[in-house]
Write a structure and sequence with these properties.
With 221 residues, the chain is mainly beta. The chain is built from two helices and 17 strands. Helix content is 5%, strand content 40%.
Length: 221
């Protein structure tokens, strides 16, 4: 499935207010069978702004769906920071890159670059900008200079196994801290799955994190 990751604008507010500790809090993945995002990407701070407000409709839980209301708690959570020159993925010639891919130059220059236009890189090394926010065209790829280090959140992939017979469908996944009360449960980010995805008859519905980008990647500059 093609996944588009979007961070809620008020995540920073929740972090500065001390509402979220990724390592120790119960962070859950909730499946939504529909979600009219509208302005909520910028305005939603709590789960109630998404689900209780009715813009997002949670997937059907119980029985043969294999899904439990409220979603699944993430396991294997890891928070790590890597300085740009230590980032393991180096940009290569004539290589296909997708949106969101993060690389460093083979000759490290203290910055990392994120793919903002997908395509195949050129046959020679581009001239990398060293001002955050500036971009460079590299064959069919456009790279943006994004920072001097990478903060990466990872977890085990949440997964739900349907019964046989049974069907589970969702178009979005919301990741949030579960306090037990939607109006105090901060939202973190959501995945747009590119349309309704379905698992059925004993199949698994798995939210697979990108190998290089994890659950969430952010940059320091």
């Amino acid at each position: 499935m093609a996944v588009t990751v979007a961070v809620y604008g008020k995540l920073q507010q929740s972090l500065w207010e001390g509402r979220i500790n990724f390592a120790t809090d119960t962070i859950k993945a909730m499946l939504l069978q529909s979600y009219t995002v509208g302005s909520t990407q910028d305005t939603a701070q709590f789960l109630s702004d998404v689900v209780t407000a009715g813009v997002g409709v949670e997937a059907t839980g119980g029985g043969s769906t294999g899904y439990t209301a409220g979603g699944q708690a993430l396991t294997g959570k890891v928070l790590s920071y890597t300085a740009a020159n230590s980032w393991s993925t180096q940009r290569a010639n004539s290589t296909a890159y997708t949106l969101g891919d993060v690389v460093r130059p083979a000759s490290a220059n203290g910055y990392v670059y994120q793919c903002i236009v997908a395509g195949t890189s050129g046959g020679s090394v581009p001239t990398y900008p060293t001002v955050i926010g500036q971009t460079v065209t590299d064959g069919g790829v456009t790279w943006a200079c994004v920072g001097r280090g990478v903060l990466l959140l990872r977890s085990a992939d949440p997964s739900w196994t349907t019964g046989n017979p049974g069907t589970l469908s969702a178009s979005h996944i919301v990741f949030y801290k579960d306090t037990g009360t939607p109006s105090t449960s901060p939202v973190i980010l959501y995945w747009d799955l590119g349309g309704s995805q379905v698992a059925s008859n004993g199949g698994a519905f798995t939210a697979q994190e990108d190998a290089g980008e994890g659950l969430l990647v952010s940059f320091t500059g």
